[in-house]
From TrEMBL:
It comes from Granulicella pectinivorans. HAMAP family: HSP90 (MF_00505). SMART domains: HATPase_c (SM00387). Keywords: ATP-binding, Chaperone, Cytoplasm, Nucleotide-binding, Stress response. ATP binds at residues 34, 38, 80, 85, 100-101, 122-127, 172, 340. Transmembrane segments: none annotated. The keyword Hydrolase does not apply. Residues 27-182 form the Histidine kinase/HSP90-like ATPase domain. This is Chaperone protein HtpG. Homodimer. Residues 552-626 are annotated as: C.
Length: 626
């Protein structure tokens, strides 16, 4: 006998195995979906090679997945005629965790079995889930184009053994020695049920071989007859017409391609026939994928050419902001051997992509109009990626602006720009918004006072990307979009009457005094038209980032950039300002000047440069009034 080579699992593998066994025990049946999907991937890979690579062209290719059941021995085998694995592949694919996704999986595990079992498919810990139902697993595999086969054996505890083996054709056979938990799958009825549930639309036929009891009428007893049946539909379901498909069909396919066990929110199925022929089926998951905000997110759209799987990790299939979309693009016009490099500038794919984005955005718009409550569920998960689209997808800006929802001073919950437009006052020139800070900070900002007083709506943009995104968006249709913390926005509110002019003249000496006191900490000191109850506020110039944005840039390491100074605005009608106007330029007036500035900074959520000096001033002023 050949000596077996005993190898240890990478530490993470052992850790993962333990976690899987303990946290996913409530859904052990998913092991079968995972193994079948691995077989299907292996068949896709081999089919691709036989079509595109000269050395594999003449290889016989009989794609199938075979399940074999031995009830007596309590073993279940899952075999495929796919690409197979050689010794090195077995060690690296089944003995280590090479993929960063799996490490993420480990970090995300919560111990809540239901939640964790939803994670498993997203992070590709698939194979190991079989240890939930087996106390020993053998994998016999032969790689396409190679002569030798190998047997990998493990009890899922410490490590695995590898030894030479035999296999007639390329492919992989996985033999599960079922444990107590797994015994329920040593039953043909149960197996068929699980295959139908998860793997019905796998593009390859899945056969089940088992001993069927058949009634022997002559001898009046039941015989065991070895039977092989196809147990899945094996159709590329997306190629059928919509009228043939039920909601259940769509949901099943979604679950099998996404690894998500929840139903999708909606799906959009399109067949294009004309200069280009293709089918797309896109799904919106009901919950945002966990890696939505990770640079290394997993692509959710698979590319097929004439029903042949090509790849599922091409980030160019849809724009990045639609990375939460799951589904399939199946083209008749692309070459089968389309390479990744070609994909990037391929005209066919560019057209499909452009049309797909339009389709998705149009369908979302329809849902927003016809099923507003359902749309809200969508927005709760995906408002932010849509905003990213505003930044990157210039061509669809108008459509995206219609889809995004906003918090507002006028209504509870979220609102659309179309609704804001209907609420505009007769003389209102622009739609206003405020950015930079938490919702509560923004809602209490002195900058909103005049808008409140005049009954004008202001949108509360409290998402950290809002300022970057919306500073680039100047209009909604014909209407200007304006940030209330920009200096020029108050032009809209200006009072041009002669009385107002006189008042401004009278304020000039005070403004100059303040400017002299604050020196180079401010760019300018002006009379404000936007304040009602507060004595002062901070505004920024049109082209300059707001104070919060400057803080963010600094936090991101942009320390050298000279930061623009803020402009201080004071409220001419406020009691403190009026008193200051009448006051000689003494020490208290100086303290007051600083405190007008510092309180405006604090209201913006900007920390003070010299808190000690602030407290001394405060105490001097306090001692006069107590
Ligand atoms: N039947 C098979 N034929 C060929 N290779 C296989 C087979 N099963 C597993 N493998 C190899 O082992 C690797 C690990 O499989 P595993 O199920 O753990 O994760 P995965 O399939 O890569 O991830 P995911 O479940 O997210 O698709 C696969 O990527 C593949 O390379």
């Amino acid at each position: 006998m050949e000596a077996m080579a005993k190898q240890e699992f990478q530490t993470e593998v052992s850790q993962l195995l333990q976690l899987i066994i303990h946290s996913l025990y409530s859904h052990p049946e998913i092991f079968l979906r995972e193994l079948i999907s691995n077989s299907s991937d292996a068949l896709d890979k081999l089919r691709h090679l036989t079509l595109t690579d000269e050395t594999f062209k003449n290889l016989p290719f009989d794609p199938r997945i075979a399940l074999g059941l031995d009830e007596e021995k309590s073993t279940l085998t899952i075999g495929d005629t796919g690409i197979g694995m050689n010794e090195e592949d077995l060690i690296s694919h089944l003995g280590t965790i090479a993929r960063s996704g799996t490490k993420n999986f480990l970090n995300q595990l919560s111990g809540d079995a239901k939640k964790d079992s939803n994670l498993i498919g997203q992070f590709g810990v698939g194979f190991y889930s079989a240890f939930m139902v087996a106390d020993k697993i053998e994998v016999v595999s032969r790689k396409a184009g190679e002569e030798l086969a190998w047997r990998w054996t493990s009890d899922g505890k410490s490590g695995f053994d590898i030894e030479p083996a035999e296999r007639d054709v390329a492919g992989t056979t996985i033999i599960l020695h079922l444990n107590d938990e797994g015994k329920q799958y040593a039953n043909s009825w149960r197996l068929k049920e699980v295959v139908k549930k998860y793997s019905n639309h796998i593009a390859f036929p899945i056969f089940l071989t088992y001993e069927k009891s058949e009634w022997n009428a002559e001898e009046k007893k039941s015989d065991k007859v070895l039977t092989t049946e196809q147990v899945n539909a094996a159709s590329a379901l997306w190629r059928r017409s919509k009228s043939e498909l039920t909601d259940e069909d769509y949901k099943e396919l979604y679950k099998s391609i996404s690894g998500d066990s929840n139903d999708p929110l909606f799906w959009f199925h399109t067949k294009a026939e004309g200069s280009l022929e293709y089918t797309t089926l896109f799904y919106i998951p009901s919950k945002a994928p966990l890696d939505l905000y990770q640079a290394e997110y997993k692509v959710g759209v698979k590319l097929y050419v004439k029903r042949v799987f090509i790849l599922d990790d091409a980030k160019e299939l849809l724009p990045q902001y639609l990375r939460f979309v799951r589904g399939i693009i199946d083209s008749e016009d692309l070459p089968l051997n389309v390479s990744r490099e070609i994909l990037q500038q391929n005209k066919v794919l560019t057209s499909i992509r452009t049309a797909s984005v339009k389709k998705i955005l149009t369908e979302l718009k329809n849902i927003s109009l016809n099923q507003p409550e359902k749309y809200l569920e969508f927005i709760q998960e995906y408002n932010r990626p849509l905003k990213e689209g505003l930044y990157g997808d210039y061509a669809n800006r108008e459509a995206l602006l219609e889809l995004i929802r906003f918090k507002s001073t006028a209504v509870e919950g979220l609102t659309s720009l179309a609704d804001v437009k209907t609420r505009m006052q007769g003389e209102q020139k622009s739609i206003y918004y405020i950015t930079g800070g938490s919702e509560s900070l923004l809602r209490t900002s002195p900058l909103l006072e005049i808008y409140k007083k005049k009954g004008l709506e202001v949108l509360i943009l409290d998402d950290e990307i809002d300022e970057i995104v919306f500073s680039g968006i100047e209009k909604y249709g014909e209407i200007d979009l304006k940030a209330v913390n920009k200096a020029s926005t108050s032009e809209d509110l200006k009072d041009d009457s002669p009385e107002a002019k006189d008042e401004a003249e009278a304020l000039k000496p005070l403004l100059e005094k303040l400017k002299a006191t604050l020196g180079d900490r401010v760019k300018d000191v002006r009379a404000s038209v936007r304040l009602a109850d507060s004595p002062s506020c901070i505004v920024s110039d049109e082209e300059e980032p707001s104070l919060q944005m400057q803080q963010m840039l600094r936090a991101m390491g942009q320390k050298e950039i000279p930061l623009p100074k803020p402009t201080l605005e004071i409220n001419p009608d406020h009691e403190i300002v009026k008193k200051l106007l009448a006051r000689p330029d003494d020490a208290i007036a100086q303290d007051a000047a600083w405190m007008l500035f510092e309180q405006a900074l604090l209201m913006e959520g900007v920390p003070l440069q010299d808190p000690a000096a602030f407290v001394q001033r405060l105490n001097r002023v306090l001692s006069l009034s107590v």
